[in-house]
């Protein structure tokens, strides 16, 4: 038996980065890229390295770029920690597993370090393969929590639930991370929306390594935890934008949605220290007439465009900046 599973990148349409702060977001998955896992029974449990786990390089410059892109441990750590967390969950919940071993490998073409949730896609695909191999079922809200725990608890990666919820549910999802809900049931309110309701969207991302995530350059968590009014108010502001965006989507009001997406980024710029490269991406898109905000933590942007002439203008404007622009195909 050969098991093949897939998970897709995520783009935050509105609300980020309030997902880790009891806020609200809308995000969707798209199939232009994917993370894929193959698993089959074998005498021993083996994790097969992928290209990003290579220890052979063409030059010292190639090693330098590889470490900047994939870190020192590549993707093997993602599979190891996912398998460990899955087994721990089954132990804690007294879920019996058969004793067969397996070989597992992964592959991903999701652009790295540009805020498209590539790491959590690999973990999600791994979890899907393990669930199929062992014949185990985990409710979607708990599965999203488990996937976040792989990154938070096992790997020390700061991460909210937005990416994992979107990737577990797939499609477009409205998420309310209200603290009262978490205290009561351990997860938020997750409501699938109809992707067909969305306007024409573009995503643009950097293809060089000069600009990465903004998360590590800001102390937003510390400022939020100590109750800094500017940060606390911003989280409430983004949550309110999300409610308005949900209404605009359901009404088909693309002008309003564009305004809300722009407002989302403008508020982020007030409280985050953003790199010039990321600021330039947004400015370029807006100069072409499109709305623009981050898809996640930086390195990629998303927005609404009105027609093919505007999309062509975006493509031309980004071409000289090592930025790729494409139309996301929603899952």
Question: What features would you describe in this structure?
Answer:
It is a single chain. The chain has helices at residues 60-70, 76-92, 118-134, 140-154, 162-169, 179-185, 220-225, 229-251, 254-271, 276-287, 308-319; strands at 2-7, 10-14, 24-29, 35-42, 46-48, 101-108, 172-176, 189-193, 201-206, 293-294, 300-304, 323-326. It is an alpha+beta fold. The chain has 2 domains: 2-193, 2-Layer Sandwich (Ribosomal Protein S5, domain 2); 197-326, Alpha-Beta Plaits, CATH 3.30.70.890. Strands 1-4-6-5 form a 4-stranded mixed sheet. The chain is globular. The two termini are 26 Å apart. The mean pLDDT is 93.
What is the residue-averaged pLDDT? 93
The helicity comes to 40-55%
Cα-atom Rg, whole angstroms? 20 Å
CATH topology term of the largest domain:
Ribosomal Protein S5, domain 2
Topology:
Layout (H helix, E strand, L loop, with lengths): L1 E6 L2 E5 L9 E6 L5 E8 L3 E3 L11 H11 L5 H17 L8 E8 L9 H17 L5 H15 L7 H8 L2 E5 L2 H7 L3 E5 L7 E6 L13 H6 L3 H23 L2 H18 L4 H12 L5 E2 L5 E5 L3 H12 L3 E4 L5
Parallel strand pairs: 5-6
Antiparallel strand pairs: 1-4, 2-3, 3-7, 4-6, 7-8, 9-11, 9-12, 10-11
Helix pairs in contact: 2-3, 2-4, 3-4, 4-5, 8-9
């Amino acid at each position: 038996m050969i098991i093949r599973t897939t998970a897709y990148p995520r783009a935050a349409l509105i609300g980020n980065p309030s997902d880790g702060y009891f806020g609200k977001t809308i995000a969707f998955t798209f199939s232009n890229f994917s993370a894929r896992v193959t698993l089959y029974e074998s005498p021993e449990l083996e994790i097969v390295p992928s290209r990003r786990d290579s220890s052979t390089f063409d030059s010292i410059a190639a090693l330098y770029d590889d470490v900047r892109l994939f870190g020192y441990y590549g993707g093997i750590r993602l599979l190891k920690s996912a398998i460990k967390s899955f087994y721990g969950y089954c132990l804690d919940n007294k879920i019996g597993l058969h004793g067969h071993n397996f070989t597992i490998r992964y592959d991903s073409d999701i652009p790295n370090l540009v805020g498209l949730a590539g790491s959590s896609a690999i973990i999600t695909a791994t979890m899907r393969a393990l669930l199929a191999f062992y014949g185990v079922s985990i409710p979607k809200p708990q599965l999203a929590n488990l996937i976040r725990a792989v990154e938070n608890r096992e790997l020390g990666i700061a991460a909210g639930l937005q990416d994992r919820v979107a990737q577990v549910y797939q499609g477009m999802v409205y998420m309310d991370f209200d603290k009262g809900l978490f205290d009561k049931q351990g997860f938020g309110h997750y409501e699938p929306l109809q992707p067909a309701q969305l306007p024409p969207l573009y995503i643009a991302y950097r293809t060089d390594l000069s600009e990465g995530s903004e998360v590590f350059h800001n102390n937003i968590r510390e400022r939020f935890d100590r109750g800094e009014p500017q940060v606390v108010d911003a989280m409430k502001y983004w949550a309110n934008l999300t409610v308005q965006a949900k209404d605009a989507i359901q009404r088909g009001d693309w002008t309003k949605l564009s305004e809300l997406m722009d407002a989302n980024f403008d508020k982020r710029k007030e409280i985050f220290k953003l790199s010039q490269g990321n600021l330039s991406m947004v400015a370029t898109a807006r100069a072409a007439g499109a709305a623009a905000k981050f898809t996640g933590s930086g390195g990629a942007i998303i927005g609404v465009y009105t027609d093919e002439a505007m999309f062509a203008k975006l493509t031309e404007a980004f071409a000289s900046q090592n930025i790729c622009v494409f139309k996301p195909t929603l899952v």
